[in-house]
Amino acid sequence: MHTRKVGPFDVSAIGLGCMSLSHAYGTPPSRETAEQVLRGALEAGYTFFDTAAVYGLGHNESLVGEVLGPDRAKFTLASKCGLTNAAATERGIDGRPETIKGTCEGSLKRLKTDVIDLYYLHRLDRKVPIEESVGALAELVREGKIRAIGLSEVSAETLRRAHAVHPIAALQTEYSLWTRNPEVAVLDACRELGVAFVAFSPVARGFLAGGVTDVASLVEGDLRRAMPRFQGEAFQHNLKLFDGFKSLAAEAGCTPAQLCLAWLLAKDPIIVPIPGTANPEHMREDAAAEAVRLSPEVLAKAEALVNAQTVAGNRYSPALQASIDTELLPNETVAA
């Protein structure tokens, strides 16, 4: 796989988001299947693995550490703090320096490593100035416990404030054909500051890969059940969009998931998508997207078909929207 820059690291152009191996989208896979995904990803050329303390409250970090620990030198490891208490036993936004440092100590142990390559503040804590949170992360850099600092789900303004305290290597936010919020301001800020943009949920939380055709099939606790785009009339509208998207992927000679990923890779060399999956075959399908080259005509058709105006429903519920710092699109409202 070709590489892209994330801070000081050269990483595979497509990384692996590990969250779904522990929680969020349905029942987590068996340990055997999770190992097949992780080990298989390394063999398929992935060199960028993304986890977090909050994923399964430590379970995901432990899984990654146990399975990939013996090959630690072969990949760039990213994890996150700020969405749990220091012990990673309870969820909740907490960007206090003491919590950040305590969480990092636990992450190092679970990941079976002496240093985390890229450590993100998972969410902005509105009760703590970003300068204080990033200051704590900078201390971890000086102590040799982390190599680079990242931020997740923050605005361009917050990124600039953070970058003034310590260079930010990467900003991670949802970005796909159906979630265009980064295009409001933060992508431009990343280009301006030399910050890599790591795109999570690049296949629209599985929707644009054909993974959700019936919301009733989603298990209780699946995060998508509470998302407006997966509810009622909005979901039925979006299903019709997917029919056309699937046809466009066939025209381009790739799968719908590969069309999503190839579109992102074509947008800007600073972008590194990190699709997640609990399926070894899907993991390999995603890796193959790096070799897909889309014509200008296909890129234009994809953007015209799936965009902020054609997708129905807000990205998050009002409660979740209130917990993030990212910019809204002109047609979005917090209360919708």
From TrEMBL:
Q: Name one GO cellular component term.
A: cytoplasm
Which GO terms of the molecular function aspect are on file? oxidoreductase activity
Domain NADP-dependent oxidoreductase, chain residue ranges per copy: 13-305
Organism domain of life: Bacteria
TM spans (from-to): none
Q: Which UniProt keywords apply?
A: Oxidoreductase
Spell out the coiled coil positions from the record: none
| PANTHER family cross-referenced by the UniProt entry | AFLATOXIN B1 ALDEHYDE REDUCTASE, ALDO-KETO REDUCTASE YAKC [NADP(+)]
- What protein name applies here? Aldo/keto reductase
Q: Which organism is it from?
A: Phenylobacterium soli
